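Justification of computing resources. Each target in the renewal requires a structure prediction run like the one illustrated here; the chain below, 270 residues long, is used simply to show the kind of job we budget for.
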Amino acid sequence: MSQAGKVAWITGASSGIGAALAREYARRGAQVILSGRDEARLKEVAGDCGEALILPFDVRDDAALADAVGKAIAWHGHVDVAIANAGVSQRSQALKTSMEVYREIIEIDLIAQIAFAQAMIGHMAERGSGALAFISSIAGKVGVPMRTAYCAAKFGLAGYGDALRGELSNRGVAVHVIYPGSIATNVSRNALTGDGSPRGRSDTAIEQGIDPADAARTMIDAMERGEREIIIAEGMELAMGEMRRTPDALFDQVATMVAAGYIEKMEGEG
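Resulting C-alpha cells:
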C-alpha cells in the first residue's frame, strides 16, 4: 500500500529496526523524519530515504523533544505515523544489576517513549487521524532471564499502548504495539550489563535473527491492515508470543466501553 503524502517519524532511526522502518516508509512514498542521538548515522540513513528530515535529540531530554515536535509538525503541517522505537536492552542477572541500570533502561525504554507519544497524541487527535506504534519485544510478553529491567520496561510500554488505544479508539488514531523477537541488529552488542557498561558482543539468536528489512516490511504491512498487536518472530519466540497474544475481542470490548461513555463516566465520578 502506498504511503505517498504521509509523514512518518521514527525514533531510534540511526540503525537496526528504526533505520529499516525509515527506508521502508520512504520506499512506499512517505516523507520520513529520523530521530536519534547520532546525527552522522542519521544522515547516512537519510541518504536512502528521499525526502527526509533529520531531528537528532536524546529521547530523555524533554526540552529537546518539545522542540523536535514543533519542527516535525511544521515540516509538512502534520505527522501521520509516529513510531517509538528508541531503546536499549540488557544482559545481566538481577542479582548482579545495579539500580542505576534499572533506572536508565526504564527511563529510555518506557518513560521516554511515553513522553514521545504524549507529545504527539494531541496533534493526531485534533486532526482525527494518525497512527502511533510502540516497539515492545517478545520480552514484553514473556519474562526472559537476564532482562529483568528490559522486560519491566517493555511490559509497561505494552500496557501504556493498550490503554492509550482504548482512550483514542473514537478519535481516529490507531495504536499498534509491536513485539519483535530476534532481529539481526546490534541490540545485544549495545545491551547494558549489571554495572551499566555495554555488553560489546552479540547473541547467536540475534546474529541468526530476522533481517531488519524483512521485519520492517512485515510491521508496516500489519499496521496498514489495522492490526493492533503485531508479533514479529520465528520458532520458539513466535510460539511464546502467540501463547500470550491478547484476543482481538478484548481490544474490541475496551473500544466498546469507550464508545459507550466509559471515560466521561469516570471523569464525572471524579
